[in-house]
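Batch manifest, entry 17 of 40.
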Amino acid sequence: MRGILIAAGVALTVSILLTPYLIRFFARQGFGQEIRAEGPASHQAKRGTPTMGGVAILVSIWIGYLVAHLSTGESGGSPTASAWLVLLLTTALGAVGFLDDLIKLRRRHNLGLSKTAKLIGQLITAVIFSVLALKFANAYGLTPASVRPSFVRDILVLSFGTIGFVLFCYLLVSAWSNAVNLTDGLDGLAAGTSAMVLATYVIIGFWQFRNSCSLTNAAGCYQVRDPLDVAILAAAAAGGCIGFLWWNAAPARIFMGDTGSLALGGLVAGLSIVTRTELLLVIIGGVFVVEALSVALQIVVFRTSRRRLFRMAPFHHHFELAGWAETTVIIRFWLLAAICCAIGLGIFYSEWLTEASGG
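Output type: structure tokens
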């Protein structure tokens, strides 16, 4: 537990202190955000706001996670395979997002990497992660990931096989990284929502550790490789997001850019895989799901009927164009995110109660 608190506290501190330096540095370099011309008129005032603030989140995650290990010696005294792989997945996707942001800034345009190039980057990253996640078995034969799909734990009657799992992993990584990227359209919306989702995974990881089958053979125990270390990583990430939110909340002084959104999307996807909660994440990250679905539905409806289902997609812009103030949209979406996380945790805990009671 101490490691979790240290990881969150250190990452929070690093993120709060580092972000203003990035604001000044990116401003001097002219790394300002370009704004879509077809977006809400109020957003044009944000043109030129420094972007690529996701760098602060990534740095704070690394420092928070490593300091927690150096100061407490938890999780066996050294980082574990599960956390390392999720951290590398996060960093690699952050690098893809950084390249995308850099191209946008150099071209002075809101378009960076092509869709194909971005998908290739996500594909390579996801394939490497998925292949490695099926290796590194511990003394109990557990690997960071499982070839079986999962809701709260593995669904034993189903199995993807190795190739199927690699494909499934790519779909998850691509879907979640793009979903968080689409949500990052209002000041603090993605950072605040991500912090809630990550805090939820701190609780899930810690609860799985307290009820791990490697510690107890009680009914309802979890077959997860490194739950405590995963909770420490999630705590560092949550702290990093909250620290960044100090500067990213409306009116934002810096945006996370694709550097942050792609990284955070990959992070939550990776956490769901190593905690065996891939399908539960659909509920926990419900706001991200709705944002992505709104874009998909807008495209499908427009291509079939030449009419728009929403005033603008992603969904949050629909409410802005309907006359809602930006801060109103943000706060209400945060409330929805909190509700989704609470429902997800409730389902997670109720499933444990059922299993523990032999139901």
